[in-house]
Amino acid sequence: MINEFYQKAFELDKKDELVRFKEAFVSEPNTIYLDGNSLGKLPKKTIVQTNALVTNQWGKGLIRSWNDHWIDLPQKTATKLAQIVGAQPDEIFVGDSTSLNLYKLAFAALNLNQSKKKIISDNLNFPTDLYILQGLIEQQFKDHSLKIIESQDGITVDEKQFEEAIDNQVALVVLSHVVFKSAFMYDMAHINDLAHQKDALFIWDLSHSVGSVPVNLNESGADMAVGCTYKYLNGGPGAPAFLYVRKDLQKQLQSPIWAWFSHQAPFDFSLDYQPKDTIQRFAVGTPSVLSLAAIESGLDITLEAGIDRLRTKSQHQSEFLIELIQQLLVPQGFRIVSPLNANQRGSHISISHPEGYRISQAMIKPNDESKVIVPDFRPPDNIRLGIAPLYNTFTELVDCVERIWKIVAEDQYKQYSTERLTVT
Ligand SMILES: *Cc1c(COP(=O)(O)O)cnc(C)c1O
Q: Is the pTM of this model over 0.70?
């Protein structure tokens, strides 16, 4: 059976119109990387560009490089990112982390919508999003309450629950567009409509969707959004995040952090604060030039490949991977814990097994000549197989499933410790 899959994968790889992008990234021999949903690969061009920037712009240009190269860098990056998320260049701010950007927007939204006291999220959301909301309630919005919509199966959320939950008392809804564990994807336009019918504001977290699924913030009527650039966009570890606020909402929202880069004229050094009128009113301090510059080639590659083509390939690969899992791994006790409907799913497939952690360790650190396979692990027992259509091939998916099958069939995982590493 596995040979048939290899044959099919070989044909599909041959026909793949995006296959050339694999070469744009650094690869380790004998290694299959299926964790692009946590940290994307390094584009080769980023090495060259970063080297040149450090050597010339920093090394030689020093302070003069601010005017020559750096001061417009956040806006230049925002312009490219805007195309990827279906927004206008003056609706995107690039900088800080996703968590911090969510804090700024959630604070501003709750402040604007003071007469309403309910906040809604769900129990599939990324923990940092919930922590930020809990902290805001504890420290600033003490009369507010957070309602968590519960997933019934731990994989999907019935969107009908929002029809009931979003009433006239709801100030703000915060959801991940694609949820981090199961890859369930919300219908953004539909949920935006529900919120707008009740005058609730909305923040989407796009960390697991940007660069892998089409996002159209303008067309779907989104109010606000935040997201990472270091996952499917390949911007590098801890790369600056972004935030989006639709144009007509920008001046009504005030960032809780008043700082010089959000001031109308930072270099006048005035002692009184006057926020900018633009999206830059959400800036805080000096932009992180090195990591900002490192995002650029990842964005260029995504734009060149085209988000629709990436989505098509990702769905095709996901279906292929699901078929492999169903044929080979389900009989071994694995469960697929991602939606089976491709339209409700982002670009990773989660599988669960009671020995998930040790199996993932055996994949990453084989004791023999087997290929190294890098997925990630999410407690209690989820192995996430992230498909990055820019650089993953169909053949790699067969390799991966064959390897997992062998680890379990030969009890190889038993040689590994159950003790968790700090970063999984
Ligand atoms: C990865 C991720 C984050 C990460 O936030 P940081 O501030 O960059 O650490 C936040 N939200 C979601 C949904 C994520 O997937």
A: yes
Best mutation site among 37, 97, 126, 288 for ligand 1 pocket (most ligand atoms within 8 Å of CB): 126
Measured from CB, residues less than 6 Å from any atom of ligand 1 are: 97-99, 126, 128-129, 176, 180, 205, 207-208, 228, 241
288-324: pLDDT as tens digits:
999 999 999 999 999 999 999 999 999 999 999 999 9
Strand blocks (E) in 134-223: 145-149, 170-176, 201-205
Tokens 């779907």 sit on residue: 220
Give the residue from 337, 331, 323 showing the smallest Cα distance to 5. 323
> Which tens digit of pLDDT belongs to each residue from 368-406?
999 999 999 999 999 999 999 999 999 999 999 999 999
| Encoded amino acid at 138, one letter | E
Q: Name the active-site residue from 35, 96, 122, 205.
A: 205
Q: Which positions ≥6 away from 228 have C-beta within 8 Å? A: 98, 207, 210, 235, 239, 241
Helix, strand, or coil (residue 317): helix
> CATH number, domain at 170?
3.40.640.10
Number of domains in the chain: 2
The catalytic residue among 384, 394, 413, 416 is 384
Which tokens sit at 44?
A: 């080769």
User: What's the token pair of residue 313?
Assistant: 């390939």
What domain range is 76 assigned to? 47-304
